[in-house]
């Protein structure tokens, strides 16, 4: 009877560890043991072991080592979470400091507004013999094609006049620019582009911080190459 009572006590501990009671006394299943539940179960296991066949020291040490490892991993996770929170806070504080400033960042869009057309900077990886800029509206329709004259290796500025292929003023808005350059062998040359605008806001998209520009364009914070004081301020 004593052995059966001890087995019932151990079973009771297991059941209390596997369920938590809500304020309405409704049992809710739980898949995890906290520190207190583990130690209670471990002590009960020691107290109710068969005196003629006690737990092997190796098994006992293995259980304790496993518990210690879980504790260390739990503490590590908490530390990592804390570091991520601090890092996110630093990123947000850094991003806010950009508001009101002009930035140059990776991008292929220009903005047509009351003040004209924003510039686009392009870099040729090698000397080109010909290069063309293709301007598309927000619907993806080609509105203009411009032959470029700055064809040497390095960075150049493309300043579109805001007119379509019929020399008519285009509507205000954002336009994408695609640049294709060829060398003297007719092979394509790598071209990278940068855009410029004033930061007015920020948001998080797909785990990255994105700057919102005054004309509605967006650029990735990590792609910013230059920062200037807004000349209009």
From TrEMBL:
Residues in domain FlgD/Vpr Ig-like?
A: 107-179
UniProt KW keywords: Bacterial flagellum biogenesis, Cell projection, Cilium, Flagellum
Pfam family, any one: FlgD
Where do transmembrane segments lie in this chain? none
What this chain does, per the record? Required for flagellar hook formation. May act as a scaffolding protein.
Family statement: Belongs to the FlgD family.
Q: What is this protein called?
A: Basal-body rod modification protein FlgD
């Amino acid at each position: 009877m004593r052995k059966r009572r001890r087995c019932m006590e151990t079973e009771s501990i297991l059941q209390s560890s596997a369920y938590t009671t809500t304020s309405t006394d409704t049992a809710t299943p739980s898949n995890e043991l906290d520190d207190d539940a583990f130690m209670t179960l471990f002590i009960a296991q020691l107290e109710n072991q068969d005196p003629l066949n006690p737990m092997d020291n190796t098994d006992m040490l293995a259980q304790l080592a496993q518990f210690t490892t879980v504790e260390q991993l739990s503490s590590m996770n908490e530390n990592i979470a804390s570091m991520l929170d601090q890092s996110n806070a630093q990123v947000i504080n850094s991003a806010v400091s950009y508001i009101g400033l002009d930035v140059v960042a990776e991008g292929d869009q220009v903005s047509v507004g009351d003040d004209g057309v924003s510039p686009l900077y392009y870099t040729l990886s090698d000397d080109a013999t010909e290069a063309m800029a293709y301007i598309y509206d927000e619907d993806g329709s080609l509105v203009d094609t411009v032959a470029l004259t700055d064809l040497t290796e390095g960075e150049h500025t493309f300043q579109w006049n805001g007119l379509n292929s019929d020399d008519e003023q285009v509507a205000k808005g954002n336009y994408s620019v695609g640049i294709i350059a060829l060398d003297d062998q007719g092979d394509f040359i790598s071209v990278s582009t940068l855009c410029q605008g004033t930061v007015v806001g920020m948001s998080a998209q797909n785990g990255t911080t994105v700057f919102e520009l005054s004309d509605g364009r967006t650029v990735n914070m990590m792609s910013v190459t230059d920062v200037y004081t807004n000349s209009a301020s």
